[in-house]
Amino acid sequence: MNSPIIQLLVLAGIAVFLILRLRGVLGTREGFEKPAVTRTGSERSGQKPAFDVIEGGPDLDITDNVPEDSDAARALAAMKRVDPSFNVTEFLGGARGAYEMILMAFEKGELDSVVPFISEDIYEAFATVVDDRQRQGLTIEANFIGISDMTLTDASFDEVTKEAEVTVRFKSELTWVVRNSEGEIIEGSPKEIKRQKDTWTFARVMDSGDPNWRLVATDA
Fold it and tell me: Side by side, which strands form the sheet with 214-219?
């Protein structure tokens, strides 16, 4: 075998060896892969980056909604200790849906559909208004447009009874019309958007088997 052929075989062997080594280091690419992330100096030195959340640090689920050192934050933390499944962000999502459901049930006079979600006192207060409308022959036509703003304003927790209360301020938009017994509009307009503010307080016993929060207080 002449010298040029031997040289080619040696070079080919080296190339194969280098390819195998590179595959072992880099791996293979199949389909979509996330872009590489450059490690910071602190990561290379074995230190945790400043943004790394460690056990015992702030609970962002709480501090994203109320000030970290507030009474409300401490109350929410106590709720979580009693019921680890409780999540503030998920609660607010449920409160958003409950607000629309309860508000529309009240406007339409269909309170039976929301009995599991309101306290007896709230039911009686709402029912009094609904009954008064019916005696006057009034009907409400309401169309919920949406919630423009929602803020958790307060929270409290009773360590003895394990009853929790969370207060939320809502700003909503809807169209609202009041008609008399003849069907004539006496208040509101189907084309005019009504902006409404409500502050509602929801309550629940955190160690009970009932997962429902109930509306226990309302304020404008």
Answer: 139-157, 163-179, 185-205, 214-219
Number of domains the chain is built from: 1
CATH number for position 151: 3.10.450.240
At 188-220, the pLDDT tens digits run 999 999 999 999 999 999 999 899 999 999 997
- Residues 192/214, Cβ–Cβ less than 8 Å: no
- pLDDT given at position 7: 55
Task: List the beta bridge partners of residue 144.
Answer: 174
- Report, as an integer, the average pLDDT of 118-141: 96
- Residue pair 61/93 in contact (Cβ under 8 Å)? The answer is no
Confirm whether 186 is domain-assigned: yes
- In 3D space, the residue among 169, 18, 152 whose CA is nearest the CA of residue 87 turns out to be 152
Q: Are 122 and 111 in contact (CB under 8 A)?
A: no
What is the reported pTM? 0.73
**Would residue 39 count as lying in a domain?**
no
pLDDT in tens, 41-72: 334 344 333 323 335 678 999 999 999 999 99
Q: Closest by alpha carbon to 87, among 70, 108, 105, 65?
A: 65
